[in-house]
Amino acid sequence: MFVSESLGLSKHLGETLEERKILREALISHSFFSDVIEAVRFDKKFGEIEEGTVVAKTINGVRIVRGFPKIKRALVLNPTLKKHFENEVAVEEKMNGYNVRIARFGKNLYAMTRRGIICPYTTEKARELINPEFFKDHSDLVLCCEAVGEESPYVPKSMYGVEGLDFFVFDIREERTNRPLPVEEKLRLCEEYGLRHATYFGTYDVDVAHDEIKDIISDLAGKGREGVVIKDPEMKLSPLKYTTSQTNAEDLKYAFRFFNDYGKDFMFSRIVREGFQSFEFNEGDKEFRERCLRLGMAILKPMVESIREVALGGKVSEKLRLRFGSLDVMNLFFEQWKRSKVDFEITDIKKDGKDIVVFVNKTMRNTTDKIKAHLEGIPW
Q1: What is the residue extent of each domain of the chain?
Q2: Cα–Cα distance between 380 and 364 in angstroms, integer?
Q3: Are the beta carbons of 324 and 333 closer than 8 angstroms?
Q4: Neighbours of 185 (CB within 10 A)
Q5: Residues 380, 366: Cα–Cα separation, whole Å
Q6: Can you tell me the distance from the alpha carbon of 96 to that of 118, in angstroms, rounded to the nearest whole number?
Q7: Can you give the residue ranges of the RNA ligase Pab1020 C-terminal domain (predicted)?
Q8: Which pLDDT score is estimated for 14?
Q9: How far apart are CA 78 and CA 87, in angstroms?
Q10: For the domain bounded by 72-93+203-242, which CATH number is listed?
């Protein structure tokens, strides 16, 4: 099998990975993916191989795009920054979208989600928006981006002024080794090739960085933005992330709207973050009460709304607006959703110039069924 050979694994181990469903299909064969003969993804971490790693047999040989490593979180800025970093830290905005890696296989660009799915929708957008000259000059590099905008199939957000979907580079990495380029080199390449990138706030001495970051966080919170990623400027140490209270509340709102699909995973960690942030920011009674109210409303209000919706005979669903450049890509994307067991209904299709705009209700079946069962008298 090409995966075993390319990764230096025994044939038996390769078969074991398939049997344990660690290796899964990364794409649906289609002319839109004409440069790829076959591709698989690691659905779970395996040894040193990250979850989301893609191994693709292409027309130019086997390519390996490593999964994006998980970033740990700082619960308090001081003394975590001094303990984790050495001299300086670079601070960038953590944007609220979905994680995408973009690489070139053969003649075309391919966009991979965090889990390693080569997404038709995201790939079409990457081919429209990313300067292909970057990959002609740097074929061994991967653009790690946050895909954000109102027409996102996964995290639709309007806060960045992106009506459709766009990509903001936060890392550039070597394809096989996953080694990230230093921050300044990444920014230089983005400037050279006209690539949008996450906001860079500056580089600060580690001894004073916590005060600078607190000010940045306060400003971002006022704008409803997510938070920051704190990096070693040379990218030799792993980054840390730190989020605003407002984004914790927004996450909880989303999770408890669909509480039986996401609630359990979201609740505990975000409440712990709130406790540490409240302590470090030395909140007075008024600020603390506002935080408590924000959290309580984020948990209960969307859940009650979902219960009411089902009680009235509806389904708990997320409404999406997606824009496709071709009918083929639209059909391919929704076929991929069907294979991934996504429960959805297309409610309307419109033409907008050359584009096809599709309105979709993405039903959260577990939450809908759970609410319905309890309303009919089934105990918890």
Answers
A1: 2-67+96-193, 72-93+203-242, 245-311
A2: 19
A3: yes
A4: 13
A5: 14
A6: 20
A7: 254-377
A8: 74
A9: 14
A10: 3.30.1490.70
Beta pairing, strands 72-73 & 240-243: parallel
- Give the pLDDT score at 1: 67
Return the beta strands (E) in the chain as ranges.
23-25, 36-42, 54-58, 61-65, 72-73, 88-94, 98-105, 108-113, 141-148, 166-174, 200-205, 227-231, 240-243, 317-324, 344-352, 355-363
pLDDT along the chain (380 residues), means of 10: 76 77 93 96 91 95 94 94 96 96 97 97 98 96 97 91 94 95 98 98 96 95 94 98 94 92 82 95 95 95 97 96 97 96 96 96 95 95
The DSSP bridge pattern shows strands 23-25 and 36-42 to be antiparallel
Residue 242's nearest CA partner among 201, 213, 281 is: 213
Q: What is the spatial distance between Cα 52 and Cα 114, in angstroms, rounded to a whole number?
A: 6
Token pair, residue 261, equals 């699909």
Is the peptide bond preceding residue 132 cis, with omega within 30 degrees of 0? Answer: no
145 forms bridges with which residues in the sheet?
100, 169
Our separate counts of H helices and E strands in the chain read: 12, 16
Instruction: State how far the Cα of 157 lies from the Cα of 94, in Å rounded to an integer.
Output: 14
- CATH code for residues 2-67+96-193: 3.30.470.30
List C-alpha distances in Å: 70 to 212, 240, 241, 321. 25, 10, 10, 29
**Predicted pLDDT of residue 228:** 98
Task: Classify burial at 38, counting beta carbons within 10 Å of its beta carbon; exposed 0-12, middle 13-18, buried 19 or more.
Answer: middle
Give Cβ neighbours of residue 190 (< 8 Å, ≥ 6 apart): 169, 196, 197
Rounded CA-CA distance 146/199 in Å is 12
The first and second tokens of residue 58, run together, are 């292409």
CATH class of 245-311: mainly alpha
